[in-house]
Amino acid sequence: MHMKKIKINVMALVALAVAGVTGATLTSAGVAKSNTQSQTYYYNSTETNEGEFAQPSNWSTSDSSNECQSDGDRPCHIEVPTGQTINQVLANKSNDEVLEMSTDRKP
Q1: Interstrand relation of 38-43 and 59-60 (parallel, antiparallel or unpaired)
Q2: Terminal CA-to-CA distance of the chain, rounded, Å?
Q3: Which residues pair with 39 in a beta bridge?
Q4: Is the pTM of this model over 0.70?
Q5: Chain mean position to CA 21
Q6: CA of 95: how far to CAs of 47, 59, 103, in Å?
Q7: Mind listing the pLDDT tens digit for each residue in 25-62?
Q8: Dist. CA 43–CA 99, nearest whole Å
């Protein structure tokens, strides 16, 4: 009888451990999913000629200048949704269209 009770307690502990690990894994997956909604790209060029804002090579995932402000001639940053690339988002866009997509500006 004593061994049967120990066996039941061990099985209960194993079940709790499995439930805890499963819950932690699901929570981690949920956090990762919410962090991958979009990717921010920053305009890192001084060029303002037509077509330059749509050049993927002028954009980076890091902002080396920290010059974002409300006014300016260049875009500051845009959001690229998950499942799309910077190339897809900028394809066939004019400078004005890219400026409309950008939240802030660079001088």
Answers
A1: antiparallel
A2: 80
A3: 80
A4: no
A5: 26
A6: 11, 14, 14
A7: 444 455 444 456 899 999 999 999 999 999 999 999 99
A8: 11
